[in-house]
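Need tokens for this chain, all 188 residues.
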Amino acid sequence: MALPVSLRNSVTPPELELIASEELVEIIPLISMERTAFISGAYGPLRPPNKAKIPLWMAINLKMKKKCHIVPPNWLSVDFLQDRLALETSRQEFSQFPFRFTEIAKLLLDVAPDDIQNSERIRSLLKDIREVRQAKSREGLQKIDHSELSLPNLCSMEINEIRPFFVRAMGVLTQLTRDPVADSQFDV
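Here are the structure tokens for all 188 residues:
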């Protein structure tokens, strides 16, 4: 999929997924493994059936080798997402999610849909939430002024999507709101 020109100057979604893969998730290991040191830290020991917290990148690697089950985070459930969708549609402000929820959800749904109950329903709810939040972002950007843009509780992917537009818009607004008298003092 080709990215729009506006996103080519920003961090790409796969790069955001790579950053999110450092987040810790819980797994149920199917193999035993001693404590292992990596550049990002030491993880383990893994002893079935005890749960362990490891980085998402490691959990994905073990899952692809059929050496663990990934325990989905609490927010990746039908009940939680339905509640958040109701909040998103009934309130003006963004509801609170983990900062990298879109990237984590995508990775988990791509690699471990069998570990997530009602994974197709969750995909649908995440899509609905994304659409509602995008509409709120567009509405917030229409109200932009030269001093600030306040959109609390945006996640990293959403910030990344609006960043190119916001930077350009703020540049134009700054030029439009410059004091011509102050600018003429510097003309030689």
